[in-house]
Amino acid sequence: MPHTGELDLIRSIRARAATPPGALRLGIGDDCAVLRPLANHDILVTTDFSLEGRHFRRDWHPAASAGHRCLARGLSDLAAMGAKPIAAFLSLALPAGTLRKAAGRQWVEGFIDGLLGLAKATGTPLAGGDTSTAPGDHILADIVLLGSAPRGKELHRSTAYPGDALYVTGILGGAAAELEALSNHPKRFSRSSPTDNHPHLYPQPRLAIGQRLRTLATAAIDISDGLSTDLAHLCEESNVGAIIDAATLPRIEAEHLALHGGEDYELLFTAKASTKLPKRIGGIPITHIGTITKNRAILISHSGNETPLVPAGWEHQL
Ligand code: ADP
Ligand code: MG
């Protein structure tokens, strides 16, 4: 159904937003959503902007990819803390006139399709949001995600300990390599689909792994800004250092992309040296890449030659 106004758009989103049974008692349609979390669980909350020109470009990203990525970023934060998603809220601001043009309508529909596709795949109901006219000519989206974890059992960045082993999930650098390819040939992936392997366009948040890690890991963080930058965050919060063995990095791209390329949305975590970890969780490889040290330095070793690993991933310049 074509929608040209806010109410039509919300009606169409509501019709498509499935509400699987779970903590969500009441979704889109009233003044508030109502949640009833399990007893003995804590609620975890995260919010992420997806701003046109900053996080996606309409001339590079298929609309479905922008919607998928909008939700994936928040889900990856939940995964990093071992939480299970319980509801998502989407605030969307569209430039005046967007829904009056066929291309604009199609874009918004594609964005919602991409977002709801990942929502369905991960059991995350879209439970509400807000819709408004944007002040400028950029699309602005903000996602709020609520998750839950057994009381006091969520994972933190701040609890790595000297002697812990350092691990990473999946393969690193793929998202940065795909973004580079996209910037060279913007139309190249216009027919891509979330079921293909597209680490930049359709990242898969590691929710099942995060929940499994609650009993295996000592600390965790998701790699949104690049391994070097997120490892520095983990070390800073835990007041420790680390040494990485470059030869062990799981990658098919150049080493600098694996170390510094952002948006892989894999998990970086630590576990006691005595903890035995599976080689794979849910089919995703788990790779031992280094060790946590007492010395605050972060080092990388190439054939035994240790040099400082300078954080060179993503940081917003404000
Ligand atoms: P109110 O004026 O009371 O905030 P709205 O008209 O903004 O009500 O929203 C009506 C319902 O639609 C609410 O349940 C709200 O959460 C939901 N909603 C509004 N915008 C969105 C959106 N972009 N995505 C999902 N739900 C939305
Ligand atoms: Mg509102």
Structure explained in plain terms:
This protein has helices at 6-16, 63-80, 102-122, 174-184, 207-213, 227-238, 255-260, and strands at 24-26, 34-35, 41-51, 84-95, 126-134, 140-150, 165-169, 219-223, 241-245, 266-271, 280-281, 284-293, 298-302, 305-308. The radius of gyration is 20 Å and the shape is globular. The longest helix is centred in the middle third of the chain and has 21 residues, at 102-122. By secondary structure, it is α+β, with helices and mostly antiparallel strands. A hairpin with a 7-residue loop joins strand 1 and strand 2. Helix 2 runs parallel beside helix 5 (207-213). It is built from 7 helices and 14 strands. Adenosine-5'-diphosphate binds at residues 10, 13, 28-31, 90, 92, 126, 128-131.
What attributes does this structure have?
alpha+beta; four-stranded mixed beta sheet; binds magnesium ion; 318 residues; 7 helices; single chain; binds adenosine-5'-diphosphate
Output the number of helix runs: 7
Radius of gyration over C-alpha positions, nearest whole angstrom: 20 Å
Please identify the structural class as seen in this structure.
Answer: alpha+beta
Largest sheet: 8 strands, mixed
Which regions contain 5 or more consecutive residues with pLDDT less than 50?
none
State the share of residues found in helices, binned by percent: 25-40%
> What is the residue-mean pLDDT, rounded to a whole number?
94
Q: Could you tell me how far the N terminus lies from the C terminus, measured between alpha carbons in angstroms?
A: 41 Å
Overall 3D form: globular
Number of strands: 14
| Strand residue content | 25-35%
| Bound ions, cofactors and other small molecules, one mention each | adenosine-5'-diphosphate, magnesium ion
